[in-house]
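Escalated from tier 1: zinc ion holo job.
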Amino acid sequence: MTTADLALTDHLRRISALERVAGLLGWNQETQMPRRGAAQRAEEAGAVAAALHALEADPKLAGLCDAAEAAGPSARGTIDIAEARRLHARATRIDGALAAELARTTAEAQNIWEAARAAARFEDFAPALARVVALKRAEAAQRAEPGADPYDALLDEHEPGMTAESTSALFAALRPRLVSLRARIAERGQPAPRLAGSFPAAAQLALARRLGDVFGYDWDAGRLDLAAHPSSSGRLGDVRITTRIDEAEPLGNVFATIHELGHALYEQGLDPETALTPAGASASMGVHESQSRLLENQIGRSRAFAEWLYPELRAAFGEIGLDGPEDLYRAANAVATGFIRTDADEVHYNLHVMLRFDLERALVAGDLAVADLEAAWNARFAADFGVTPPDVAQGVLQDVHWSTGAFGYFPTYTFGNVFAAELDAALRADLPDLDAEVARGAFGAALGWLGPRIHRRGRALAPSRLIAEATGRAPDPATLLDALEAKYGALYGLA
Ligand code: ZN
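Tier 2 regenerated the structure:
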């Protein structure tokens, strides 16, 4: 590395450190913060965001990039320069006051959202959400390239290279076959087996830890806590996950934990040399979600995994009301019209995402007012799913994202599902014994395959190129659709 590279790296590491501090504040808010700490936490989050913004907007940063470029940067330095220029442009396009105001307002809005959801009252949240939307619209307007859709500026934050237009095209390709598959399954009216028994929280938590062990989560570089919203946060040597436990039903915890482990194994598996600078960081939210979805769905909801999980569940809970692994496989893949995105099966999930994408795009464009959001949500839900949510807690208030200002984030879930289907196809072609290993609880081979192809490559390539190099072909939504139709066609006896 050149001296100029090192000076730039030093600046970028300070940015990364502050991002992790913000992440720790968020984790603490979700898991441990006392209720009365909310107001001062908002101030703390605002102060960290302002410091972060100052580092990104620092005029010195542009000079550091120029110097590093002139010195002939390494491959890694080239990625860092590009990312530093992107951060700097973004930070200088929005003013510091707006950045700090956004951080304060979203920290408050998150607490208001939580209380409003508990009370199932949209009107309690609407004023706070209106403030967040107004700030995000201001941010998008300041950030957008001249003439571009302002939504693109928000989406680009989470998935570099994707736009509202390319996302719409992808969703248009997925939608008809998903809607048809969901309708054909609903017509069959075939009930799925359900677990029945006693599922105490302590035994569920122990099972979540056991999942961490078998999937190769490094407990010296992470921890597991309970939270309302399962999540993964942090990087490399400190990657924390949370899960939630419902004593009436243990599979929610099992699949939430596996999902978050997928995220966490990516962060723990980054190249230690570069993980704390942009070059070595995770490629995008879509690629991140491909790691969690691959573990949760393609591996976790497989017949082979049910063979491993069934005796584990019996050992943890005794009688569970199922006849064996095949029954568990069917229970884990029950397709049912539900209201909650995070509980949705693979067939319904992407339809939930499309609903949110269209609504948030309309909010950002100014075509939909927050006051009309509840009605718009219910109308669209009825059109897509054939039912209306019984209350706002199971409808428009179910997700934390909008309260945190994460507009442009939802589509990355579907990008992840598309990438995961491609990775699964390539993984199985390369590792013909994968199912046999999964059935005996050995997940090392899958992780060993992902490490050099995804985890340790950082941001060497744009997201879809990264997936294409890992799998040998450009990502295509047909791979996901073919896999879903084959799996659920067999499960539900569709012609
Ligand atoms: Zn996720």
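The mean pLDDT is 95.
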